[in-house]
C-alpha cells in the first residue's frame, strides 16, 4: 500500500518543483507509473479475501477494482485538464494538480480502509478538493450553488452516518471491517433498527445517488471542470456503492423489509432519469442524468443483497465509471472548441472530426450496454438478480434498458449526425492528446470483455 | 495606544484569568473575573467611536451583572453550606444560579444577545481577546462546579449551537459572524462539559486556535465585511489559498482539526446513549457551515466584479509584522493539521 501512497503523496512536491515546460508531462508520467503499480492489486492471492493487509488498510476483490480505477483515472484527469488550464498562470496549474492528487490520496485511503472510521474520515475528505474544483474552476455562475448543493446534500446525510458508526462502535466494540464481517446479528430494538438502517445507508444513497436525493448530481457534474466531472462520475459515485456494500454486511438481518421502498425508488429513478435524458438540451446534463440512471440500477442491485446482485453492481460500477468518464471527456472536447454545452449548437461533428465520431460511437454503444462489453455484463446480471427477487422489476429494468438505448443513440445522433451548424466557422482538429485520452478510457473497457473476473468482486 | 498602558492592561487581563484559575474560594474567583472585565474595558473603548463606547458599556453591564449574580449565589451558598469552596458546592438553586451567571459571561444562548453587538463594536484584536481569552476563566469555573442540573447544560448547549447557526446566516459583518460562530462552538463545549472535562478542554483549545487564526487573518486582510474579503487575493495570495481550509476547519470538516472536537464529542455522547442530542448537535453544525462556506466563496472561490484600480496593489502597505501576525502560521498550522495528532493531544489534556 505504501508503494502507492508515498509516490502519490510525493506527486504534490513534484507538481510544485517541476519546471513550467515539464509540469504536465512529468505529473502525467509519474501518475502513470503509480497506476502501473496499482494494477498489481487486481490479483487476489488470499484465502480470506483480504490482501496487502496492514493494520489500517487492505484490499479485497471488492475494493481492488475500484482502487485500480481510481489510480487509472488520475493520469486521465491530468491529460484531460491540460488544455483548459493552459491559459491559467503557472501557480494555479500547480494548485489544480495538487488538488487532484489530494483527492486521489483520500480516495485510495477510503477504498483501502479497514476501519470504518477511517473510511468515514476519508469519505468526507474527498469533499473538500471536489468542492474547490467545482467552485473555483467551474465556468458559470451556477457553480457556487452547485458546490453548496454538493457539500450540503452529502454532509446532511453523512453526519447521521457518523453517529451511527459511533453507536455501532459502542455496541460491538469495534469498527474494523475484518472483525465486523464475522460478528453475528446485532441486537437492536425493533423501532430503532429502522433509524439505524436508514442513517447507515442514507449517506451512500445520497452519494450514489438515489433518485429522490439526486439533485446535487446534475448541478455538480455540469458546473465542474472536466477533471471534476471525470472524478465525480467515475469514482465518487462508486464510493457510495462501495460504502453500501460494506455497510450492508453489518445490517443484514434488518434489511429484509426496510429496503423495499429504496429499491422501488431506485428502479423508478432509472425510468425517470433516463426519460428526462431525452429532453435535455445540455450535453453534460444528459450524461449526468444517465449516470443517475445507471447508478439507480446499481443501488437496486446492492439493496437486494444477493451474490449476483453484488457482482453485477460491481461490474456495472467499473464499466460505468470508464464509460461515463469517457462521455464527459468527449463532451469536453466539444466544449473546448465551441464553449457551449448546448447540443443543438454542436451538431454534425462527424463531418468535421471523423475519428472523434468513432470514439463517440463506441462510447455511446458502451453506454447503452452493447454486448460483449462489461456494461452489458453488469446490467444483465443485475436484471437477472432483480428478476429473481421479484419478476415485476422486469418492467422497470426492461423499460429502463430501452430508454437508455434511446437516449444514448439520441446523444450520438444529435452530436455527430445532422447538418453542421452555419455558425461553426472553424474548429480545431482533434488533438492526439484527446485521442489518447479516449483510447485509455475505452481500451480497459474492451480488455475487460476478455477477463471479467477481475471486476467480479468477492461474491465468487 | 500608549505602550505602557497597553502593557498594564494586558498584564491585568492575564492576572485576572490567572487569579480565577488558581482560586479555590469563590471570592477570589469573582475577583479574578472582575479584574479581567475591568482590564479589557479601556481596550474596547480605545477608539472614540459611538459603537465602541456602546460595546464597552454593554460588555461592562453584562459582565458586572453576571459577576454580581455569581457573588450573590456564592455568598448564599457559603451561608447555607458553611464553606466557600468552588469544588464542593452542593445547593442546587445556587449552583444553577452560578452556572447561569457563568453562561451569561460566556455568551451562551439564551443569554447571547450581547455577544454579536459587543464583538462588532470593538476592533478585531480586542474582539479576538474577548472571543478567546475571556472564555477561559468562566470555563474553568464551570469545569469545577459539580452537580449542575444536567438538563440545564444540555438544553443551553443545544440552543447555543442552533442559535449560533441560525443567527449567523443573515450577517454580512464578519465580526458578528465570528460572534455567532463563538456561540455555536461554546454550545458544543457546554454539551460535553458534564460528561468529560478533558474533551471540553480540548474542544475549547481547538476553538481558541481556530478563532485566533480567523481573527488574525481578518486583521491582516483588513476586512470587516464580506465585501471587503473579496480583495484578499490582491493583498495576500497565500492567505487566500489557506483561508477556505481554515473556515472549513471552523465548520468541522475532516481532515482538518475542527473535526476532532466534534467527532469526540459525538462519540462521548453516543457512548452515554444521548443519541438524539448528538444528532441535533451534528445537524445544527451544518447551519454554521453554510456561512463559513459563504465566506470561503468570497475569499477564494469566486472573483468579485471589483474595480481594476482596487486590484492593482503594486505599492503594498504591509503593516509591520505585529506580534499577533507572527502567531498566524502557528495558529493556522494548528487549525489545519491537528487531526492525526488527536490521540497524543488528548493524552496531554487528560
Explain how this protein is built.
- The complex is a heterodimer of chains A (460) and B (350).
- In chain A, 71% of the residues lie in helices and 0% in strands.
- Chain A contains 20 helices and no strands.
- Chain A is globular, with a radius of gyration of 21 Å.
- By secondary structure, chain B is mainly alpha-helical.
- Chain B has 2 domains: 148 residues; 202 residues, no CATH class.
- The radius of gyration of chain B is 20 Å and the shape is globular.
- Classes of the chains: A mainly alpha (460), B mainly alpha (350).
- The interface between A and B is medium-sized, with 27 and 28 residues.
User: How far from one another are the termini of chain B?
Assistant: 40 Å
Radius of gyration computed on alpha carbons of chain A: 21 Å
Which residue ranges of chain B are poorly predicted, with pLDDT under 50 across at least 5 consecutive positions?
none
User: SSE string of chain B, helix = H, strand = E?
Assistant: HHHHHHHHHHHHHHHHHH
Average pLDDT rating of chain B: 91
Most extensive chain-chain interface: A-B, 27 and 28 residues
N to C succession of SSEs of chain A = HHHHHHHHHHHHHHHHHHHH
Number of self-contained structural domains of chain A: 1
How many helices of chain A does DSSP assign?
20
DSSP helix count of chain B? 18
Protein name (chain A): NADH-ubiquinone oxidoreductase chain 4
Pfam family, one (chain A): Oxidored_q5_N
EC number (chain A): 7.1.1.2
Main location (chain A): mitochondrion
Looking at this protein, list some descriptive labels.
heterodimer; A: 460 residues; mainly alpha; 20 helices; B: 350 residues; 18 helices
Summarize the SSE layout with pairings.
The complex is a heterodimer of chains A (460) and B (350).
Chain A: H1 2-17, H2 23-38, H3 63-81, H4 90-112, H5 116-125, H6 127-137, H7 143-172, H8 177-180, H9 192-207, H10 216-223, H11 226-251, H12 255-258, H13 260-277, H14 283-303, H15 307-338, H16 349-352, H17 354-367, H18 374-389, H19 393-416, H20 432-447
Helix pairs in contact in A: 1-2, 1-4, 2-3, 3-4, 3-11, 3-15, 4-5, 4-6, 4-11, 5-7, 6-7, 7-9, 7-10, 9-11, 10-11, 10-14, 11-14, 11-15, 13-14, 13-19, 14-15, 14-18, 14-19, 15-17, 15-18, 15-20, 17-19, 17-20, 18-19
Chain B: H1 3-21, H2 26-44, H3 50-81, H4 92-106, H5 114-121, H6 124-144, H7 150-167, H8 174-193, H9 197-221, H10 226-229, H11 232-235, H12 237-251, H13 259-271, H14 275-301, H15 308-311, H16 323-326, H17 328-337, H18 342-349
Helix pairs in contact in B: 1-2, 1-6, 2-3, 2-6, 3-4, 3-5, 4-6, 5-8, 6-8, 6-9, 7-8, 7-14, 8-9, 8-13, 8-14, 9-12, 9-13, 9-17, 12-14, 13-14
Domain NADH dehydrogenase subunit 2 C-terminal (chain B): 291-344
InterPro entries (chain B): Complex_I_Subunit_2, NADH_DH_su2_C, NADH_UbQ_OxRdtase_chain2, ND/Mrp_TM
Membrane topology (chain B): Multi-pass membrane protein
